[in-house]
Amino acid sequence: MSNDNEDKKSISLPLAEGDDSSAEAPKSRDEGGDISSEIAKEVSDNRVVLYMKGNPAQPMCGFSARAAAILDAYGKPFYAVDILKDQEKRQGIKDFSNWPTIPQVYVGGEFVGGSDILMEMHENGELAPLIEEAFQE
Fold first, then answer.
1. Higher-confidence residue: 27 or 103?
2. Signed CA dihedral, 129, 130, 134, 135: sign only
3. Cα 102–87–49 angle (5° rounding)?
4. What is the rounded CA–CA span in Å between residue 57 and residue 72?
5. With contact defined as beta carbons under 8 Å apart, do 92 and 9 qualify?
6. 62 Cβ neighbours under 8 A, 6+ residues apart
7. What does the mean pLDDT of the chain come to?
8. Domains along the chain with CATH numbers
């Protein structure tokens, strides 16, 4: 007859929650991170992020202009990134989201989509509560 303690094996699993000192916060490239980490930092540090061609005051394509105008209509601040100024980020955002086109919009840390999806959500009333929720705290 075997002892129950001899039949049991001990395993150690990492905790799902709590302070994990090995996990690092996303860093910009200036802070020693890579492009993916920099994008993750921008998305996590800002409630609404628009990756676009140009900037809201001077968009460089119609789709970016439309996305900026839609976001501006809500009267909430958004962080705009001109991907034309940074070729690494231009490709990096496509890889990060697994979405092939620009502009790209993130609300509350989540990828929403491009200009067409943003327009559809705006027109059917789905975008307003998403933006409002991102600014709750």
1. 103
2. negative
3. 45
4. 11
5. no
6. none
7. 86
8. 27-130 (3.40.30.10)
- Residue 17: its pLDDT value, please? 43
Query: Which residue has better confidence, 111 or 14?
Result: 111
Q: How far is CA 76 from CA 31, 46, 49, 104, 117, in A?
A: 28, 12, 11, 17, 19
Q: What is the DSSP string of 1-14?
A: ---HHHH-------
Stretch 77-83: mean pLDDT: 97
Residue 113, C-beta contacts closer than 8 angstroms, at least 6 positions apart = 99, 104, 105, 121
What would the mean pLDDT of 80-89 be, rounded to a whole number?
A: 96
Provide the total of helices (H) and of strands (E) in the chain, helices listed first: 6, 6
Q: What residues contact 124, with CB distance under 8 A and at least 6 apart?
A: none
Longest CA pairwise span in the chain (Å): 81
User: What one-letter code names the amino acid at 92?
Assistant: G
